[in-house]
Amino acid sequence: MNTGRQEPRSQYADSAQQQQRLRPLQRQAVPAARATASRMLRSMHMRRRFRLPTASPFEIPITCPDDVLAAVFERLPPGEQAVTIGALSRTWRVWAAPRRAALMQACDVVRNASGPSGQPRLSSAPGCAVGGSVWRSEGRKPSAFSLPPWFVREAWPRLTDRQRLAAASRAAAHGDTWLQPWARAAGGERWERRLCEAAAAGGSVRALQRLRAAGCPWDEATCAAAAGGGHLGLLQWLRAAGCPWDAVTCERAAAGGHLSVLKWARGAGCRWNEWTCAAAAGGGHLRVLQWARTEGCPWDEWACEAAAAGGHLGVLQWARGEGCPWGKRMCAAAARGGRTDVLRWARNAGCPWDERTCEAAAGSGCVDALQWARSAGCPWGTRTCAVAALAGHLEVLRWARDAGCPWDRFTCVAAAFGGHLEVLQWARQQGCPWDARACCEAARRGGHQSLLRQIDDSVSSSARAGAGAGGGWLRRRAPACLCPV
């Protein structure tokens, strides 16, 4: 019966319809915003290069108010906001400052986080892709190529070879191949192989086609990268085009949990080995591991170790129930991940351990895991304190010493190599033996110049008073900028 009343519309439905209407406008706004910023930047470069007055024929008048321009620039990728817009004027530099800080923070997050199995760590060098949670928390998709091409072109002569390779790889991973000639000039064929691998990891068939047309070689790593990204269509295209592959392809597919890719690769004759099961276990992909075992894929103790390192207790329990072997490294892997529950279950199930378990727990900074291991009778040695000092975990080091853990001069050497001044000072105050020369050399190799100065200053007075050889050696080994005047 129709009462004449209208049912209230859901706010989510209205929001969805509004987003659907705005989506074409958003696709048009990004190129328009980029073009506007490019014109403004080109005008600024013209004035600086030819020393033109403000009212010059090259000046492009911007009649839009700042709030309108800000709304337009908000639709640019993060890298364009931080670099291009920040270079327009002092006002826009202030506007771009928090975005630049967020971009650097996101790059640090990606750089410090290790990638999937076999993947290199990302770099915060110019051109690195941003995948941090800073931009995702705003509901914005990260930029495919975080820093604009003009910025990378200008910075290219000042970059190291590693930074250039990172920039070219990040570009190729997201379909941009304009750095390929520069990569060829800088690194030759080896770099070009990396570009094909990066393009395959990004799933860009068009980028791979352009790279191949330009003469870039490929190898087994290209198929492995496509499998690791779950790009089944690209992997099929690569094989049809004659790209080689090996067992790493199945390993990468298993590590990513891409069961369909793994099934197709096996059906097409791709080899696999024990690392396939280890990769599936390390990623916590139980279905992939179960299918691989039913198809006769071999495994060894690395499968249990990978599951323990990832904290996947369910995968570990299933693997042990199926007779997968394990060894002393497995307890160390669980302790390294700070997973006391996995470590406890493994010990109750009879898994052996040794001093490496306490070392791994100390290196992870998990006091609970170290305390439980010691309460259960796990042995330790001087390396436990050294590993804790190397990682900078002062709380772990304090507890270990209070519990009677031995140490030696390598504790101070490890703290110096890691650049942890507070740990080094505490260890010296507690009477830890040390070797000034070894600590100075460790700080120098670790790149910690400020710590090197602290060590040199701490022994310089005693060197002048009569311990001359030690202090003189330190001053001779220290960089010129650190030597006392």
UniProtKB/TrEMBL annotation:
Residues 17-28 have a biased composition (Low complexity). SUPFAM superfamilies: Ankyrin repeat. It comes from the Eukaryota. Residues 1-31 are annotated as: Disordered. InterPro entries: Ankyrin_rpt-contain_sf (IPR036770), SecEffector_AnkRepeat (IPR052050). This is F-box domain-containing protein. The lineage of its organism: Eukaryota, Viridiplantae, Chlorophyta, core chlorophytes, Chlorophyceae.
